[in-house]
Design brief:
Low-confidence stretches: 217-221
Strand order of the largest sheet: 4-3-2-1-5-8-7-6
Strand content: 15-25%
Order of helices and strands: HEEEEHEHHEHEEH
Radius of gyration: 17 Å
Structural class: alpha+beta
CATH class: Alpha Beta
CATH superfamily: Class II aldolase/adducin N-terminal domain
Number of helices: 6
Number of domains: 1
Bound molecules: zinc ion
Mean pLDDT: 93
CATH topology: L-fuculose-1-phosphate Aldolase
């Protein structure tokens, strides 16, 4: 491994630790849940298994390849395969975040939601940052089937909800992924605050004016 790659991996590790701390401090993760990764070429720096994002240091991180196989560092999160599947499906993605954030996870447990788009566009920012939110059916965490299914969905959406589990978001970089994840969590909370009341979403005809350069144009599945 060349010096330049090692420097890039070190830089990615610093950013992963920063983002992990931020997620914990904002109450978006609890216990040892949640995982964060940054892509460096064909490698991915990812948070390890069994550690709280609160106490994480750069020395605790793992490096995996795009199949999720450990290449160096600590034992990766068992959800690293999920991150790898998203990177394979989205060549432009350079950061992935997965949490068990409470409001988004609550929505992932609702029976009567649209599996192709789980939340209405309640605000213009949600429309711009998230857009469409498909549901991935339930599989046990770390199951190869979960990663395979999420990878197929990731080919057409940069964020999704895993059934009875939580959100996963891909971004151009970590700041973008954090932004999208927080917007998703905020809107999930709004949706549940409004539960049982009639809702007016952002008008569909406004959609073309609310496009975000980060979001790929809609593609046929
Ligand atoms: Zn999880």
């Amino acid at each position: 491994m060349g010096r330049a790659v090692i420097d890039q991996l070190d830089d990615a590790a610093r950013r992963v630790v920063e983002a992990a701390r931020y997620l914990h401090d904002r109450g978006l993760t609890h216990g040892s849940t949640g995982n964060v990764s940054v892509r460096v070429g064909e490698l991915v720096v990812v948070t390890p298994t069994g550690l709280s994002l609160r106490t994480l240091t750069a020395a605790d991180l793992a490096v995996v390849d795009l199949n999720g196989t450990r290449r160096s560092g600590r034992t990766p999160s068992k959800e690293a395969v999920l991150h790898a599947a998203v990177y394979r499906a989205r060549p432009r993605a350079n950061a992935v975040i997965h949490t068990h954030s409470v409001w988004s996870t609550a929505v992932s447990c609702l029976r009567d939601i649209d599996e192709d788009d789980a939340l209405p566009s309640l605000t213009a920012y949600y429309r711009m940052r998230v857009g469409v939110l498909p549901i991935v059916p339930f599989y046990p965490p770390g199951a190869p089937e979960l990663a395979a299914h999420a990878g197929r969905v990731a080919a057409r959406a940069h964020c999704m909800l895993l059934r009875n589990h939580g959100p996963i978001v891909a971004g151009d970089d970590l700041d973008h992924a954090l932004d999208v994840l927080e917007e998703l969590e905020h809107t999930a909370r709004l949706r549940l605050l409004l539960d049982g009341r009639p809702i007016v979403p952002v008008p569909a005809q406004a959609a073309p004016r609310l496009s975000d350069p980060h979001i790929d144009p809609p593609q046929e599945a």
